[in-house]
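Progress report, Aim 2. The chain analyzed during this reporting quarter is listed below.
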Amino acid sequence: MVAPLIRLARDSDAHCIAVMSRCLIEVGLRGWSWDPARVKRAMRHREVCIVVAEINHRIEGFAIAEFGDTRMHLSLLAVNAAQQRQGIGRSLVAWLEQSARTAGMAEIQLELRANNPGGRFFYEALGFEFVRAVPGYYSGIETALRMQKTLRSTIFEKAEFNFSFKNKHL
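Predicted C-alpha cells for the chain:
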C-alpha cells in the first residue's frame, strides 16, 4: 500500500469530506449535520483543523478537530471502507495528536457511537480510554461513548516550589 499524504484540507475538498461524513459517519441519523457549507465554515474557523489523507490524488480519509485552551476535540474521523485497516485512520489521528502536543493540549476527547465496537477498539489501541456513555448524543436518538487520551498532566507534578523571599528588595 502507498503511504497516504496527510495534508490540511482545502475548500475544494469540502464536498468530498461532507459526502464521506454523510455516508460513513452520519448514516442512519436525521438530516445531514456536516454538509459542504458546514465543512467550509469549519475550515475558516481559527480553532478548527481539518486534515485529509490522500492516496494517488484521491481523498481516502479525513479528520476534523477543534482546539480549545487545554483540550482538542476530535469531532469526525472517517476512512473509505475499501481503505480501512491500512493505517490511514492511525495516521490522521497521529498528525492531529502531534499538533495537539505542539499546541500544549492536555488531552484529546472524542465521541463515537455506542454501537461501534470496532471504533472503540481502534481508539483504545491508540491509547484512548472510555470516560462515560452520553445518551441521545447523536440526533437525540443514539448513545455516544466519550473517550479521552491524556497528553500531559494538568496539575503540577512537582509541587516543590519553595519561594523564600528573604531579600525584600526583589
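Residues 5-150 form a domain with the Aminopeptidase fold (CATH 3.40.630.30). Confidence is low (pLDDT under 50) at residues 156-170. These observations will guide the mutagenesis work planned for the next reporting period.
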